[in-house]
Backbone:
């Protein structure tokens, strides 16, 4: 049986033959990954007191404000007013930065309807000021800016929007009043 040499690039046919699999094998692996992500989200929801744990997205709004989103390109700088959001994710530091980013981008695609946005765009895909202007002038778009590690050991995602985002109740962590007041 041949194994994948992690030190070799997968760019060659020789190395790629080690990772080829049938569509059924891929489907099983994808299903298993989806189940692990679901269980992780539910555990994180439970540990953070989010109920119902099975139905919540696992994302919690930490901050939301108005800001200016700026990007520098080779010869110029572009900026635009934006809404800045910081969302705590259901992923902990046990998940690597790259894996967390991939999971979060997948999740954000699923949350587009809840966030009422047309596109989620990675900041790295904005290569010039023309693309910047296009992103900020067309439709309701959200820009993924990066991940931040929170004190509690969870990843948070920084987003910028070119519209006023209506935050779904699912992403708001209502704290119960422990004193019994209203």
Residues:
């Amino acid at each position: 049986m041949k194994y994948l040499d992690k030190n070799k690039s997968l760019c060659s046919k020789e190395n790629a033959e080690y990772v080829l699999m049938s569509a059924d094998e891929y489907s099983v692996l994808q299903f298993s990954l989806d189940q692990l992500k679901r269980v992780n989200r539910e555990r994180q929801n439970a540990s953070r007191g989010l109920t119902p744990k099975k139905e919540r997205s696992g994302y919690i709004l930490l901050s939301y404000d108005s800001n200016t989103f700026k990007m520098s390109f080779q010869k110029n700088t572009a900026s635009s007013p934006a809404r800045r959001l910081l969302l705590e994710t259901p992923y902990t530091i046990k998940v690597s930065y790259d894996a967390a980013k991939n999971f979060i981008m997948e999740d954000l695609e699923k949350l587009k309807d809840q966030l009422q946005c047309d596109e989620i765009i990675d900041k790295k895909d904005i290569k010039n000021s023309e693309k910047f202007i296009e992103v900020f002038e067309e439709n309701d778009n959200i820009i993924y800016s990066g991940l931040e590690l929170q004190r509690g050991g969870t990843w948070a995602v920084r987003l910028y929007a070119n519209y006023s985002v209506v935050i779904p109740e699912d992403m708001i962590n209502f704290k119960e009043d422990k004193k019994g007041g209203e």
Residues 1-6, 177-182 have pLDDT under 50 and may be disordered. The two ends are 65 Å apart (CA to CA). The chain has four helices and five strands.
